[in-house]
Design a protein that fits this description.
This protein has 415 residues and is of the alpha+beta class. The chain is built from twelve helices and 14 strands. The strands form three sheets. Strands 6-14-11-7-10-9-8 form a seven-stranded mixed beta sheet. It starts with a helix and ends with a strand. Residues 60-91 have a biased composition (Basic and acidic residues). It is found in: Virion. This is HK97 family phage major capsid protein.
Length: 415
């Protein structure tokens, strides 16, 4: 770990302790924050958010520096070291498709290029290897994987472990949805057993088209030292992720995917006199409104927007312990009541009638990706500015497939 990263983590822990001290003081005196204290609280939370971003940027920068060092070592014929001192296998990252992509980006091939996964894709396994500390440094990463990684990091639902279905084409597929479970009861000797079957419906997953344009200068393309693939992967992945991520939370299902919150059921409704806010008891009620098998899932998580998490950070249990616990390890999410909590700006804010906190087994939300990502290149679209335009198209759909209560929301009172 570098000294810069070490200092940033120490600063984050110090800021969190200051925030706790501020909240503890107000709680011990049984009062709300004063105006100055509220400003200080907001400032500390803003600094925590800024430190989180800086820590992530430093980690990414250190990884890029290591990758660059490895690349130069390879050009100079030096052995490349991995953890444990083993030499890295001499093979191009991304294989043949990657070299074809480079030719396409420089205009040495056809006008279009389809970026598809190399065989079956296990996205949850890919997310694990996407973290350097969990083996990411040892896994060759294709352009497709890098693009999807950026798409995932902009959508909390996809980060949370939604089930991914990747199909070669975009025809509508039928996915069964569970609307009720079987029941059982005591049967006396000789009596008939009442049939009880689970009830199912069907969800049609189509392929809504998302598109984005990215323009790159001719000089950037001609400069062989620029990681053009990485740049396009990040810009395209984030743009498509932002567009799809909004629908993954609140999509209506009409002309767009069905959102997680759209199909989730209300686990707890707040009090009528607090303008839609939740309290510590509401957190416990929401937690236990999701039954144990779903709570035990590795994909069981909380999702809320930043302003809601700022409110959650103030809440404590009967022993004075905060429900919210910040992560001290980069890349590991903060936790709420022992479960990871992720941020997504598309979740409603705390308000009357607002569904401001989501909790449940996110693997019951199915995301269908159809046919990879199609890239197309145009040298004429921005001819007068000498920019090359890349168009990226992604087809996707999504819906919650278990409607028995796998995912619940907190909703502010209607009045």
């Amino acid at each position: 770990m570098s000294e810069v990263l070490k200092r940033l983590r120490e600063r984050r822990a110090n800021v969190w302790e200051q925030a706790k001290e501020l909240a503890d003081r107000a709680a011990e005196e049984n009062r709300q924050f004063s105006g100055d204290e509220e400003s200080q609280w907001q400032g500390l939370n803003s600094e925590l958010d800024a430190l989180d971003k800086r820590i992530k940027n430093v980690i990414d920068g250190e990884q890029r520096a290591k990758d660059t060092e490895d690349a130069f070592a390879k050009l100079e014929g030096k052995p490349q070291e991995q953890r444990g001192g083993r030499r890295e296998r001499e093979q191009p990252v991304g294989g043949q498709q990657e070299s074809e992509l480079r030719r396409f980006l420089r205009g040495d091939g056809p006008r279009f290029f389809d970026v598809v996964p190399d065989g079956p894709v296990n996205f949850r396994a890919f997310l694990n290897t996407g973290t350097a500390a969990e083996g990411g440094n040892t896994v060759p990463t294709s352009f497709y994987d890098r693009l999807v990684a950026h798409l995932i990091e902009t959508s909390a639902v996809m980060q949370a472990g939604a089930t991914m279905l990747n199909t070669a084409s975009g025809e509508t597929i039928q996915v069964p949805k569970t609307t009720g479970h079987s029941t059982a009861g005591i049967v006396t000797e000789g009596a008939n057993i009442t049939p009880s079957d689970p009830t199912f419906g069907q969800i049609s997953l189509g392929a809504y088209k998302y598109g984005t344009l990215t323009q790159v200068s001719r000089e950037l393309i001609d400069d062989s030292g620029v990681d053009l693939e990485g740049y396009l992967a990040s810009q395209t992945g984030r743009a498509l992720g932002n567009a799809f991520g909004a629908h993954a939370i609140t999509g209506t299902g009409t002309g767009q995917p069905r959102g997680l919150v759209t199909d989730a059921t209300v686990g707890i409704t707040g009090a009528t006199t607090v303008a839609g806010k939740f309290n510590s008891d509401n957190l416990i009620d929401l937690f236990y409104s999701v039954i144990a098998p779903y709570r035990a899932s590795p994909s069981c998580k909380f999702i809320a927007r930043d302003s809601s998490i700022a409110e959650i950070r103030k809440l404590k249990d009967g022993n004075g312990q905060y429900y919210f616990q910040p992560s001290l390890v980069a890349g590991t999410p903060d936790t709420l009541i022992g479960k990871p909590i992720l941020t997504d700006p598309n979740v409603a804010e705390v308000a009357v009638g607002g569904k401001s906190l989501v909790f449940g087994d996110m693997s019951q939300y199915f995301v269908r990706l159809a046919g990879g990502v199609r890239f197309e290149r145009s040298d004429d679209y921005a001819f007068n500015t000498d920019l090359v335009t890349f168009r990226a198209l992604l087809r996707a759909d999504a819906a919650l497939v278990d409607l028995t209560g796998a995912v619940k929301v907190f909703q502010g009172a209607a009045t």
